[in-house]
Amino acid sequence: MRPLTEEESKAVFAKLANYIGKNLVHLIDRQDEPHCFRLQKDRVFYVSESSMRLAISVARPNLVSLGTCFGKFTKGGKFKLHITALDYLAQYAKYKVWIKPNGEMPFLYGNHVLKAHLGRITEDTPEHQGVVVFSMNDIPLGFGVTARSTVDTRKLDPTAIIVFHQADVGEYLRDEETLF
Fold first, then answer.
1. In angstroms, rounded to a whole number, what is the distance separating the alpha carbons of residues 156 and 84?
2. pLDDT digits (tens, 9 = 90+) for 83-99
3. What do you get for the CA distance between the two ends of the chain, in Å?
4. Is residue 38 a contact partner of residue 72, using CB atoms and an 8 Å limit?
5. H/E element holding 162?
6. Coil, helix or strand for 140?
7. DSSP tag of 28
8. Residues with Cβ < 8 Å from 14, sequence gap 6 or more?
9. Are 48 and 28 in contact (CB under 8 A)?
10. What is the pLDDT of residues 139-164, one digit of tens each?
11. Buried (b) or exposed (e) across 52-61, using 16+ Cβ within 10 A?
12. Strand 130-135 versus strand 96-99 pairing type
């Protein structure tokens, strides 16, 4: 487990900033205990510094996981967020989308969010912005990228795509072999 390089840090923070914006500061400078990002086998982990110090005694080949996996680097060098980061994204999200109960299952099966399934959306959400998708009961279901801005959304027909699917909690079941 090693610290992120400058380029890796830029890729991770750019992806996270797309979803949580300026709240990114709250991930690093926490009130309870300082946290940091570490890389282990192309996966980026968000871990408390005290846990990280304890993990130094474990050999790298024997260390499977530590902290919360935020995502992984692809072979092309791009960073892909995993669904395991949803708790932190939902907590600090700048833009949010709530979907109706009839749209929850299609989203959890990996489909995009349609306008017919849209319950509420944060005002002034721009186009191609990272959003966290919630149920109407404020339960985080996943995250995605907006296809249209909030203003454009009002003019669309019910079958138009509002949010492009990125990840959802159904991946815990669908991808359980490869997720961790």
1. 32
2. 999 999 999 999 999 99
3. 16
4. no
5. strand 161-168
6. strand
7. H
8. 79
9. no
10. 999 999 999 999 999 899 999 999 99
11. beebeeeeee
12. parallel
**Residue found under tokens 């912005």:** 129
- Which residue shows structure tokens 């750019």? 14
Could you give the CA distance from residue 59 to residue 178 in angstroms, rounded to a whole number? Answer: 23
Token pair listed for 55:
């993990």
**Above pLDDT 70, what percent of the chain?**
99
Residues 48 and 38: beta-carbon distance below 8 Å: no
CA distances from 122 to 4, 37, 64, 79 (A): 33, 29, 38, 26
Amino acid at 79: F
Retrieve residue 149's tokens: 């801005």
Rounded distance between C-alpha atoms, residue 135 and residue 65, angstroms: 30
